[in-house]
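**Protein record**
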Amino acid sequence: MAKKYTKKHEVSYYECDINQTMTFPSMLGVVIKTSEDQSDQLGRGSEFVNSFGLTWVITNYSMEINRLPRVGEVISVTTQAMEYNKFFCYRNFWIHDEDGKELVKIESVFVLMDFVNRKMSSVNEEIIAPFESEKIKKIKRQEKIEKIDSGFMLPYRVRFYDIDSNQHVNNAMYFNWIIDVLGYDFLTTHVPEKVIIRFDKEVEYGNEIESHFEQIPIENGVKTKHEIRMQEQLYCEANIIWKNK
């Protein structure tokens, strides 16, 4: 069975929004740091991966949210590199409160990318071995993301601080563009229950992107559809289920 790794984290005020709950970028930053800490513990940190001319890139997230962590709360973040095949690695994360109740479950897909040509590389067995992940042949398919039929758009420019040490926009930053377009009134009267998101292309510093969105009423809430586009090209897409507060 794949090795699990758990660490505690106290949620700070600067990781939360006006609702006193963690923002998506902050939450994802904490869970990814947990996976990095596990990798370091197993001797498979970024320096080791970079020595092969490779870096990890996340292509998909699927989240089930019972509730978001709150400011001042001590949470436990657990991660497990579950499975892998020739090109994709499947890693899960769980966030629990102090009573052991599951707050959030995140399923993610990682790939190894060549630093120079920015193309996907096959999974290196030497990198993945210490995690004791199960090797599988099939490609696991994420739930289909529904396209926007008709909606609205706001433009954004990629800022210097949106770029991470891998010299591209950190995936967590896409959530700022996706969530911000929904507006104050919506975000203070709805809470997210489910998120599926796919990252298709890399965005670079100085790019002008468009955040397109559509809201669909559903029972007890709203489904929002999102697309990050640039010059008619799709860079990221997501669906989010929200419930009324």
Q: What stands out?
A: The chain has a mean pLDDT of 94.
